[in-house]
Amino acid sequence: MAASEEPEAPTEPLDVACGLENVPVSVWPPGARPGPFQYSPDHVAGPGADADPSEITFPGCACLARPCVPGTCSCLRHQENYDADARLRDPGPAARCAWPVFECNALCPCPGHCGNRVVQRGLQRPLQVFRTDGKGWGLRTLAFIPRGRFVCEYAGEVLGFSEAQRRIQRQTEHDSNYIIAVREHVAGGRVMETFVDPARVGNVGRFLNHSCEPNLLMVPVRVDSMVPRLALFAARDISPGEELSYDYSGRFLNRSDGGDEGRPGGGKPRKPCYCGSASCAAFLPYDASLYRTPEKPAPGQEGEV
Asked: Post-SET domain: from which residue to which, for each copy (predicted)?
């Protein structure tokens, strides 16, 4: 007697976020699967990191019986970060840089629905990882996103400069470059640097492609520590089904400074840009400082194999 065939188990749609986000992140086409990586909705400390991004280092505000507003809330250093619809405030046409954004943190007594808690709430709209024509994997929205609304973070391993440089040096022209270098100019002419690599450990932001006319704007947002969350907001209204993109150079409002002209170190060729925008620069931006010859380790120190 032939054994009866067991019914096929129902196939669950793939969630790239592994249930770690408020909403699942689907994949298209069905059955396709991006290369392996460990999903993390938040930064994790990587080699050479100066600080643990998960450590709470900011004191909380004292806004228990009153709302968090400028003048009384210690987290609001300048003006309100977001409007009544949780949209990033408009910096204005004359702005050449973003104001620092500090959200209320884990030590603040204000409620979870406080207007100064936006990025920390995570994904709010359904996103989808999909195969693009000529650019590998990409990310798109399945719902309308109004201008100024938070979309997602670019989260991954927070690296020290030497480790970021070492990883860049090991890449070939065929490898995808996930490493981003964010430099913030602070008082006294100092520059704060943050290097993030979501290649091995990262979130949905690792699937975002570059565009010379992006629809997302990256803003460093601090919640619990000085390690900034690299938050991406809608630079304009974004329609359902539209691919999401940002400027890999990190330039605010896509302003060009000509800092990545020429070739990376070692004579490596520039990677072509396939964004297709009217103002396409033909090549992807890069950070020249990461392509310089890395310093040799001190005697007695072993490098990573």
From this structure: 269-285
Scanning the chain, the segments in alpha helix (DSSP H) are 161-170
Gap between the Cα atoms of 181 and 165, Å rounded = 10
pLDDT tens for each residue of 35-60: 999 999 999 999 999 999 999 999 99
> Using one digit for the tens of pLDDT, what is the confidence trace for 145-163?
999 999 999 999 999 999 9
Each residue's pLDDT tens digit, 159-177:
999 999 999 988 887 788 8
82 pLDDT above the threshold of 90 = yes
Q: Are 121 and 96 in contact (CB under 8 A)?
A: no
**β-pair type (44-45, 150-153):** unpaired
Give the pTM.
Answer: 0.87
CA distances 286 to 112, 250, 274, Å, are 38, 10, 15
Mean pLDDT over the full length of the chain? 86
Q: Which CATH number fits domain 25-255+270-290: 2.170.270.10, 3.40.1390.30, 1.10.10.10, 1.25.40.10?
A: 2.170.270.10
What are the extents of the domains in the chain? 25-255+270-290
% helix, strand, coil for the chain, step of 5: 10, 25, 65
Contact residues for 99 (Cβ-Cβ < 8 A; gap 6+): 78, 79, 91
SS3 of residue 171 by DSSP: coil
